[in-house]
Amino acid sequence: MKNQTVQKIHDSFEAICRGATKLSEFLARGFQVDKKLLGNLIMVKSIGMIAGPRGGGKSWAAILASYSVAGGKDLFPWGTGAGAVVVYMDGEMRANSLQERLRLIHELNGDEASRQLAERNLLIINRDYLGSTIGSIDTDEGQTCIDALIPPETELLVIDNLSSWTSGGREDSQSWATIKNWLIAKRVKGVAVLIIHHTGKNGQQRGTSAHEDLLDFSILLNPLPSDPSRNDTKFSIQHTKLRDHLPELRKLFEFSIWFEDGKLKFESAPSGFNVATNVAEMARMHDEGNSYSDIGKNFGVSRVTAWRAVTKYREQLETLADEEAE
Is 36-272 a CATH 3.40.50.300 domain? Predict the structure, then answer.
């Protein structure tokens, strides 16, 4: 047994030594391009965070991102999901509440192939459903329990949220040091991680500032006044840290989630974008044969936002024409 332990230490030392590479050799080596999981934002092995206040829409944003990656769907402003295996770790919601949110988002998807992908690729870990506290990510025992639930083919792990998955909700530097090692191990294995976190009274993420050091991207979510005509959940998205060069994400974006005729509706657009002043031009472009995807790219909005705006605009024109005819 002792000889085996010595051999393992020797093998580990040899691997580390091989990692010290001359610049000429390192530059000449051909590395595999990291797989895109959600546009250019979430890549395989990336670690990111969405932080925001309680009840501000963090879980909606996290579930939308998870579903888009699993189902290969577009999610503006980030891009197209890869159709990869996602494990969504929910530590707070009752099982029926989480189920209802997922059902509403699933019903919003009209692409049957994408629906089948999502049904196969999106895996849920929910304490209420499993009937177990499972464990915490800031203890070795908890990490072992959680790792046992994560299948090896997982490419994205979403932790909703950091407070609910730590023992006692600790967010200090000592607790984070244990979590950090676990996250690095995930990166080494090729798993991306998206952490959902609360902001404090100062509007910034709670706990130690060391949270930011490891992150490839950090997103700050802030609630916005609801639209009275929709009674929506509205929030802004600001990318406060981007390790990669992504100038298209430097602007502020707004998300709106509401219910209409018992169905979930969702829009995302650059902050301050006024649909009403652009919809006539959108309709003209569509009449000329441009797809809603191309129209959305032209105006910097999602395909769904362009489609919904043009559809509503044409309905209004038809109503006016009928009233004039009468």
Answer: yes
Angle at 317 between CA 311 and CA 318, to 5 degrees: 90
pLDDT per residue over 149-193, tens digit each?
999 999 999 999 999 999 865 566 677 889 999 999 999 999 999
Q: Report how far residue 67's alpha carbon sits from residue 93's, in angstroms, rounded to the nearest whole number.
A: 17
Note whether 82 and 44 are within 8 A (CB).
no
pTM of the shown model: 0.85
Q: How many CB atoms lie within 10 A of CB 200?
A: 12
| Cis peptide leading into residue 77 (ω within 30°) | yes
Q: Give Cβ neighbours of residue 70 (< 8 Å, ≥ 6 apart).
A: 81, 83, 84, 85, 86, 117, 118, 121, 122
Q: Which two tokens stand for residue 300?
A: 């910097």
User: Which of 290, 326, 321 lies closest to 307 in space, CA to CA?
Assistant: 290
Q: Which of 282, 272, 284 is nearest to 305 (CA)?
A: 282
